[in-house]
Amino acid sequence: MSIRLEMLQVARLAPEVLGEAAELVLEFFKARQNPDGGFRGRSAESDLYYTVFGIEGITAMQGTLDIDRLKGYLQTFGLGEHLDFVHLCCLARCWANVAQASEQAIPEVLVHSMSKALERYRTEEGGFAPTPSSSQATAYAAFTGVAALQDLGLPISNRKGLINSLENLKTGDGVWANELGVPVGSTNATAAAVIVMRQLEMPVEARVGEWLLRQVDLQGGFKAASLAPIPDLLSTATALHTLASIPYSFDSVADKCLDFVDSLWVNEGAFYGHWHEDLLDVEYTSYGLLALGHLSVVA
User: Fold this and answer.
1) CB-based burial of residue 186 (10 Å sphere; 0-12 exposed, 13-18 middle, 19+ buried)?
2) Residue 31 and residue 262: Cα distance in Å, rounded?
3) Most buried residue, 15, 24, 141, 281, by CB count within 10 Å?
């Protein structure tokens, strides 16, 4: 199962925890879609990055997507040849979601163009980099690049080189940094690397799970790194998703994490990203659904 579908499958479990509040969440996502078909980010304007989360949030909450409006918005980006790496991968993911919802294939001309564009971000070794023709692969780029290839229905070439590029990012504590030369690992870089490694059917050491559990704050929730002052929703969702992927039990921290996610909830049908946040958006609310989906299994 692809990275995108794995995450959606888990997020679809969130309504079991949300109960009657599920309708509020669905309405929050719907309200963030603009007349042009895109979803707003942290401003009133439509944003391709946030549109990914808007589409998948509605899908997870079993809502109905306005396919025609979405297609109209996505078509404004043409064949994706002028987009940077992150937005190119977002475009692929959006089209994959639309194709699934409409039960139609992504147009072949789009697949061909985006495939060629993605190749510009492969390193000579075989990893993915956030800038074209770079020799420095990153864990985040590997995650988004592999997901984009899957969304386009394309094979993952040079798997050995891709694995080697991730192995090079390992830190002394046995987890991953996002870039070469960083001496300590981080939660989200480790999550990105592990998810890719598992997609490539590579084993992951148990000490990765042990390290992740040590990132849980005393008040619940996962921190982005050992020295981070507070936990956040992104790190909590990705850590839980990674632990489930290894697999490595997180039952011992499930109640604390559920309390943490609940502390970020507001009755507008959304979640804040962390305790000091004052803006709501579809991205963090989507991560709230992912975290709740995993926690519903042990709640």
Assistant:
1) buried
2) 22
3) 141
Q: What token pair was written down for 189?
A: 């870089």
In this structure, the dihedral spanned by the alpha carbons of residues 217, 221, 227 and 228, taken in order and rounded to 10 degrees, is -130
| Burial (CB count within 10 angstroms: exposed 0-12, middle 13-18, buried 19+), residue 218 | exposed
Integer Cα distance of 242 and 288 in angstroms: 15
Residue 248's Cα: distance from chain center in Å?
20
Report the Cα–Cα distance between both ends of the chain, in Å, rounded. Answer: 25
Q: Each residue of 35-58: pLDDT tens digit?
A: 999 999 999 999 999 999 999 999
DSSP letter (8 states) at residue 213: H
**Token pair for residue 203?**
């084993």
Per residue in 4-26, pLDDT tens? 999 999 999 999 999 999 999 99
46 phi/psi in degrees, rounded to 5 = -65, 145
What does the DSSP 8-state code read for residue 152?
A: T
The rounded distance, in Å, linking the Cα atoms of 210 and 185 is: 13
CA dist 276 and 273 (Å) reads 8
As given in the structure block, the two tokens for residue 123 are 């390193």
d(CA 176, CA 59): 31
- Residues 143, 195 contacting (CB under 8 angstroms): yes
Cα 278–Cα 190–Cα 234 angle in degrees, nearest 5? 15
Residues 6+ apart with CB under 8 A from 119: none
CB contact set of 107 (below 8 Å; sequence gap of 6+): none
